[in-house]
Amino acid sequence: MPARRAVDPAELRSALLAVGPWLRGEVEDKPARPVLAAAVRLSARTLEQIAPGSSVEVRVPPFVAVQCIEGPRHTRGTPPNVVETDPRTWLLLATGLLGFDAAAASGSLTASGSRAGEIGHWLPLLRL
Fold first, then answer.
1. How far is residue 56's CA from residue 13's CA, in Å, rounded to a whole number?
2. pTM of structure
3. DSSP state, 76?
4. Of 1, 65, 67, 110, which cross-links 54 as Cys (Cβ 3.0–4.6 Å)?
């Protein structure tokens, strides 16, 4: 499988700014699916770039799943360390509008495995 191209920071910023009003509650309407998908995918792939590895899988269905954080490599079946959340919660985390511990405590994020919480050290990716 060919390596993914690096995420352009300007492209990430533009994608996150496009969903910013929705994340802050300034507008009620959810962004169009392609706009939301771009923000989720670019932010998750940025995490994958800045925290390379394969010990934790971050899932944001239906848009993306990435592996990150150095450590034991996972190759088959369900990974031992998984973080899963919805697109809005992920984007709130990625932009610093919500903390990892608060998301986990509210149930909007599930983190399983001893290393899943390490994702919180890499967030936010970009403050709006």
1. 24
2. 0.92
3. S
4. 67
CATH topology for the 9-122 domain: Nonspecific Lipid-transfer Protein; Chain A (3.30.1050)
Measured between alpha carbons, how far is 19 from 2 in angstroms, rounded to an integer? 30
pLDDT in tens, 15-65: 999 999 999 999 999 999 999 999 999 999 999 999 999 889 999 999 999
Q: pLDDT value at position 1?
A: 43
DSSP 75: -
CA dihedral 32, 34, 38, 39 (to 10 degrees): 10
Q: What is the pLDDT of residues 96-117, one digit of tens each?
A: 999 999 999 999 999 999 999 9
Position 4: which residue type?
A: R
* Phi, psi torsion values for 54, nearest 5 degrees: -140, 20
Name the residue among 60, 58, 56, 70 with its Cα closest to residue 36: 60
Exposed / middle / buried, residue 115 (Cβ in 10 Å: 0-12, 13-18, 19+): buried
User: At a CB cut-off of 8 Å and minimum separation 6, what does 47 contact?
Assistant: 58, 66, 68, 94, 119, 122, 123, 125
Domain boundaries, the chain: 9-122
